[in-house]
Amino acid sequence: MAHTATSPVVRGIIVALSLALFLGLFVTGAHAQDTGPQIYVNMLNTDPTPVRAGASADIYLGFENLGSGTQPIEVQLVNSYPFSPAGAAGAQNITLGPYQTNNNYVNVKLTTLVDKSAVDGQYALEVQYRPSGGNWVTQNFSVSVTNQAFAQIAYIGQSQLDLGVQTPINFTITNVGSAPLQNLVFSWTDKQGYILPVLGDNTRFIKYLGVGQSATIPFTVVADVNAAPGLDELELSLSYESASNGAENILNTTAGVFVGGTTDFDVSYSESSAGQTSLSVANIGNSPAYAVKVSIPPQPGFRVVGSTSSIIGNLNKGDYTLVSFQFAALNGNESGGAPQGAGGTAANRSGFAHGNRSSFNFSGTGFEGNNLTVDVEYTDAAGVRRTVEKSIRVSSSQSSSFGGAGTGAYAGRQTTASWWTNPYVIAIIVIVLGGGYWYYRRRKAKKA
Q1: What pLDDT shows up at residue 12?
Q2: Least CB-packed of 93, 188, 327, 357 within 10 Å?
Q3: Where a domain ends, among 146, 172, 188?
Q4: 442 lies in a domain?
Q5: Is 28 a domain residue?
Q6: How far is residue 161's CA from residue 169's CA, in Å, rounded to a whole number?
Q7: pLDDT of 58
Q8: Are residues 315 and 408 in the same domain?
Q9: Residue ranges of the chain whose pLDDT lies below 50
């Protein structure tokens, strides 16, 4: 029997076909063992990165099916601090085909809200998914959260600056965000140039400011004496960096401060004439005074005859004017009774109270050594009504001028009744009447 030789080429073909058949049977068997979809989920990225506290963020997930069969999938975000689903945007339905993997994955976008109280750090984001009719599967992903770096300038301290006076003024900076701040630089300028810092410049540096912390920055300033009174605008600037990512922010704002306001007065004795005592009132401060009124309040040792106050109008800085009052002397222990001279008695005072002024002779005034209190009331540049109390010491040289009006006035107002009560006048009247009666009787006797 003859044997047919098999060529090497034929043998190679037979081996290749046998191997292909074997591999095909192996794969078919493997597929026959698949039980269904095999889901694999991967986080692709977040927008923004990192996500910001107090804002929304988009979460991108990649879904793959490593198994056989087409399968609908439900996907949703779980409400877990600091993340919460943004309504319908926090869930989605997708469909995965068999062996949909690698670059053929399904990109799922979900939107979450990030709690504003979250501080910088890594947080677990929970995602749930399930095939149709299956159980929920939870998977966690680490998400980086940063908070908004935000600072607030609270202007405090003096809201009013007196002209030409060194005044402390404070600014408070508060970290109202939820991320620490670093390298803070604060400065201020006056647009008009009326307010300038002294004992230092207008810039301060703060190295670090934690969440919720505040820093008070002190300055000492002076307002120019030539500045027009009114509201002045300060420009405030604050630059800072986020301690988490180094992002720089600049805050520019304004604050108002009132320039000018209170002032002071000098009150002194001027002169007395025509029954009036004049006082000199001068505005010795740096601010104007409006609707100035000068009053003599009730006080021991002095009594004002007539009006106790006088309105003198406006006084600019450096201006002065005179105001006059009529005084009557009092006993040092009295505060509103009748005037009394050095030799006055209780009966005399009683007579004055009942309108009988003939019994007074102001030989002594009673003013010497007393302090005269004077109230100066005015409206400042800010519209606030203020009162300044001044005291004038009455010297011996001035004492005779106070009350002089009362002396002259009362001395010239003697009534007719006072002539009849004078013994010299009575004697003269008796003599005249007696002589006349004697002359009348003698003449009548001669005629008889």
Answers
A1: 65
A2: 93
A3: 146
A4: no
A5: no
A6: 9
A7: 96
A8: yes
A9: 1-3, 23, 25-33, 332-365, 404-420
